[in-house]
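Hi Prof. W.,

I finally got the methylmalonate-semialdehyde dehydrogenase (CoA acylating) prediction working! I wasn't sure whether to trim anything, so I left the full sequence exactly as given:
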Amino acid sequence: MTTQVKHYIDGEFTAGTGTSQIVVTNPANNATIAVINSATADEVHAAIASAKAAFKTWKEVPVSERARVMLRYQHLLKEHHDELATILAHETGKTFEDAKGDVWRGIEVAEHACNIASLLMGETVENVARSIDTYSYTQPLGVCAGITPFNFPAMIPLWMFPLAIACGNTFILKPSEQDPMTPQRLVELFVEAGAPKGVLQLIHGDKTAVDILLADPAVKAISFVGSVAVGQYIYKTGTDNLKRVQAFAGAKNHCVIMPDANKQQVINNLVGASVGAAGQRCMAISVAVFVGAAKEWIPELKEALAKVRPGLWDDKDAGYGPLISPAAKVRVLKLIAQGKEEGAQCLLDGSDFTVAGFESGNWVGPTMFTKVTTDMSIYKEEIFGPVLCCMESDSLEDAIELVNASPYGNGTSIFTASGAAARKYQHEIEVGQVGINVPIPVPLPFFSFTGWKGSFYGDQHAYGKQAVRFYTETKTITARWFESDIAVAAGPNMSINLR
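And this is what came out:
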């Protein structure tokens, strides 16, 4: 059965009138599971107009009422958690456990949005001058938009629209066309939670829709997660059009392993962090740097990786699922071949892996290289597949120098039993998110997701306090009141109704 994916524009779910059709496939066998009628220019403009009109009333809704919408929404997300994970697994190929994790990390951000009243509090100083007080208010921007990737179709949209809307903005979500059914279900539940008409819009399409969002002056801010080239384009085009932009782009994340680390913990964590989700995570560990005698653990790491078996979403023994598309598989296989040609030693090669009965799926088995150098394609490029590059370093100082020379700065980790080594690493490393004996240091929502360097373009990061600042503007008031103007009280007021 093929599903017709729907847009949500001006309070109505619609298949749209676009004649350009996008086919959505199951990555496990590339069978068609859904179709999208790409949004026309008129439909994108209608979504923007509806969001702009809704902002006039939504921004005046008391913050406590906006918080109640988020409370109802996070409850519905939890109630439909497994349903969302099932939809997500079918269209991404993720294992069910991985899909549940995707949904849950998004729910955590929706929970954080429930605390929006405290997050929006301004600042006050009494008597900045004689009888003069100064205080600040935090106010919404207007229409905001989010452009999200295929690899986390629940979590990343939920990074964006709950906080933006809780701040008093309206929002247009343009998710990846490769897995649109999960975002559609997120929107359906948001409507069920009581979101007023026009507060959230959902449009599906390609670059045409994105370019309209980037150009229309009614859209005040753009949030993006995706590839380096597209992230740079979104940031440059959006800022050229005088918009706020936060663009999360590529990564090449290193894990530094000290010889005093717990060997089994290192091996267990490296396996999951490198090939989990088929390596299709911007926080995946794709480079392991073994310091000194730690290199002796490489053969055992290979043995552990070799035991990981990809499989179908409902296979409880599967370590991960297929890549998202045939094109993604072709790209990963090309990089594996280049690694061999350029002189890296391929200790484990998953190029020819298939799953019985699903041979047409986008499968790549666990792959591991040693003797990798910084001038090789497999080191310079973000592979976005289940491929781990192993490198060696004589000292912690050399390892830090290697990591800091990378143009990316999304995430990194160090495994060590030494507090001094960990302290040196966290202080000197030029990466935004650092794990100490934690392989993938994605922060919880009350912190922000803080990639650096070529992994992020913008000023304020996703979720946490920085997202609230990104989706709002600060108004500062300086006031003087004269005591001579105090009037005589008119009488008692017995009401406590603050509505």
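The first helix runs from residue 41 to 58. Does that look reasonable to you?

Thanks,
D.
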